[in-house]
Amino acid sequence: MNIGVWGDSITHDSCDDEALGWVGRIRKVLPTDDYNHIYNFGICGDTSNDLIARFDSELAAIHPQKVIFVIGINDSKFPEGSDTHLVSLEKYEQNLRQFIEKTKGHTDAITIVGATRVDDEWRSARGSRFMNEEIAKFNEVMKSIADQQGLDYIDVFETLDTAVDLADGLHPNAQGYQKMFEVIKANLDWV
After folding, report:
1. 3-class secondary structure, 58
2. 178 domain-assigned
3. Overall number of domains in the chain
4. Taken in order 157, 43, 6, 19, is the CA torsion positive or negative?
5. Span between the terminal Cα atoms of the chain, in Å
6. Per-chain mean pLDDT for the chain
7. Does residue 45 sit within a domain?
8. 61 within domain boundaries
9. How many CA atoms lie within 13 A of 51 on its CB side?
């Protein structure tokens, strides 16, 4: 079984000193026969606009039987000096619908994992910021689309304690990734 996971730095495993992230932890519990392959297409900093540019070739390369999308937190970002999301909610919704439509040409086994909480006070080195209130709006779009399309949605927004589970105010630490893994694993019927 080929499993494709598309997302951003939290999908990739940024700031996990165990270098696994939640995707690597899923990989570790899958049977180790030749028929289970999990492909992590998490790219640091990616928005849904970035994923649109690369998605077709990656999807075609692996012909997945299962797909997980974990994209949206960077879309919700406010660049320094801006009060506008990096990607508007409307454009994000269009992009997510496109991913689902394209994926259904390969499989109907699609899961959307919502975005995590952050430390609202955190700022990137370039001054970008994230706000939980805004992240929640993107999660609402994810859940709404999942409900409309009959897809699985996994809510991880309340999973992390921002005081102890974040390495830098945005990315989970090893403990945070372990918590994410436990919630996600519990909601995947194929793990």
Report:
1. helix
2. yes
3. 1
4. negative
5. 12
6. 96
7. yes
8. yes
9. 34
At residue 107, the pLDDT reads 97
Burial 127-146 (b: 16+ CB within 10 A, else e): ebbbebebbeebbebbbebb
Would 191 be classed as within a structural domain?
no
Q: How far is CA 133 from CA 96, 120, 150, in A?
A: 20, 9, 26
Token pair for residue 158? 């309340």
User: 150: domain range?
Assistant: 2-186
More confident residue, 36 or 83: 83
What confidence tens digit (pLDDT) does each residue in 98-152 have? 999 999 999 999 999 999 999 999 999 899 999 999 999 999 999 999 999 999 9
Taking only the tens place, the pLDDT of each residue in 43-60 is: 999 999 999 999 999 999
Select from 20, 15, 87, 85 the least CA-distant residue to 44: 15
Task: Answer whether residue 156 shows pLDDT above 70.
Answer: yes
Model-wide pTM > 0.85: yes
Residue 47: how many other CB atoms lie within 10 Å? 22
Q: The domain that contains 115 carries what CATH number?
A: 3.40.50.1110
d(CA 84, CA 105): 34
Residue partners of 80: CB distance under 8 A and separation at least 6: 126, 127, 128, 129
Q: Residue 25: is it exposed, middle or buried by C-beta count within 10 angstroms (0-12/13-18/19+)? A: buried
- Using DSSP's 3-state secondary structure scheme, residue 150 falls into coil
